[in-house]
Sequence to fold (284 residues):
Amino acid sequence: MDVQTTELAIIGAEEGQASGVSWGAVAAGGIATAALSLLLLALGAGLGFSSVSPWSNSGISSTTFNIGAGLYLVVMAMVASTIGGYLAGRLRTKWAGVHTHEVFFRDTAHGFLAWALAVVLSAAFLTSAASHLVAGASAGLSQAAGVANQTLVDGVPLNNFVDALLRADPAANRAPMDPAARGEIVRIFALGLRDGGDLAAPDRAYVAQVVAARTGLSQADAEKRVTDVIIQAKTALDNARSAAAHLSLWLTASLLIGAFCASLAATEGGQLRDGTWSYDRGRA
Fold:
């Protein structure tokens, strides 16, 4: 009895001095998760650009593309977090004399910590790499679409709407519009439509006068064109903001699912490390 008590005391002393976290395993799992996330992001960017076609009745719709992108974020988080969490559980040191429930808790914590480290690494270091990756893939599309030097509000280029607003009859042979005056119209639209607003009454009246002088339309027709273009711009802004909100929700869901997958995979990896994993239970 004294021998057993002495052994328990020695084990307790050793356990009290040892850390409950194997930081090397956590770092390995977190780095693996971050690297796999970047790899899958590159794959997703390539698949996304290849699925969009400039031809009508070709490719997929924007709604299908948005849903597919959201689902891909979830799948990407599941795959990367599962592998990273498994590595964090499988590579940690064996805890001698620790209760089974405590081992299960520690493995779960290791998976969660590996996932958290991967999120921090992705936000701190991999965001710029991912941005350059996506920007490089979309550079040709941006130049082809003529979106360089555009005035953007929530990602929507306002220059296109100003072009539609000031478009005149080619047969009239009117002189090109002064770039300073056109820039003023763009700034008025940007200031008025930002944060879900509208053009102020004096600005709307001034824009209508410029449109009438530029295109030769009557004042009533110019005001109607201004109203129609504003409605089109607001619709585009609403769609862009809705897409951004949906993307944020998908991203939140992918992060939560990734945390769960990493924690679960770490417990399985830890049990395989200790030789306590039951394959019959795993198949059940």
Summary: The chain has two domains: 22-146+246-283, 152-236. Residues 6-11, 136-148 have pLDDT under 50 and may be disordered. The longest strand covers residues 152-153.
